[in-house]
């Protein structure tokens, strides 16, 4: 009455084989899901703009923080140039919109991005290595110490000064090695510190130096951000906004 699992499996395989021999190719179609679409449109749904605002009557948030009397949305949308401005819903109860300049909004986003980038770069440390031998002297030695000082006068820099033994040349005793490392540190101690214990091994020695110069956060000026925004929006839109601003002054 009931077929075994093996029989049912064999029957199913035979059916698939007959379909394949007949030229049938089943194409798997993944189940559709609106998850990705919903995820990407979350911001638009929460803060719709212009005609996507779902309220027929709204109040306008003024620059001083006060609210206007209720107006029909269509009248509010007719009150500004949509090439240069947009209305965005900022509150649903009561329905409140803010009329925003595309140029100012783009400048704000660019400014936030520049600030985040500057703060992130502040924490990055660059590590360099200076290779010397115990017999390095004269102009070559002085040149490398000058380059070392130049690097350590920059913020967020670490330099490992490594003295390595030379073949067929006897390495100095540890006391003399330490004295050479002290000489190096004396040259740069005004703007650096030792951040790690000195290492002595296999006839060589390493001193680990780190710059004490504080890194300044350089942010673009408003003019530079404005130029970037104009380039992003297109000069035509930017010029219209600037002209509107000068007329109102």
How would you characterize the overall build of this protein?
By secondary structure, the chain is an alpha/beta fold. The strands form 2 sheets. A 4-stranded mixed sheet has the order 2-1-4-3. It has a 4-stranded mixed sheet with strand order 5-6-8-7, with helices on one face. The model is unreliable at 26-40 (pLDDT under 50). Among the domains are: 38-104, Roll (Ubiquitin-like (UB roll)), CATH 3.10.20; 126-211, Translation Initiation Factor IF3 (2-Layer Sandwich), CATH 3.30.110. The protein contains 9 helices and 8 strands. The chain has helices at residues 5-21, 35-40, 42-46, 73-77, 102-122, 138-152, 174-188, 222-233, 235-248; strands at 57-60, 71-72, 85-92, 95-101, 126-133, 157-164, 192-201, 204-211. It is 44% helix and 22% strand. β7 and β8 form a beta hairpin. The radius of gyration is 35 Å and the shape is elongated.
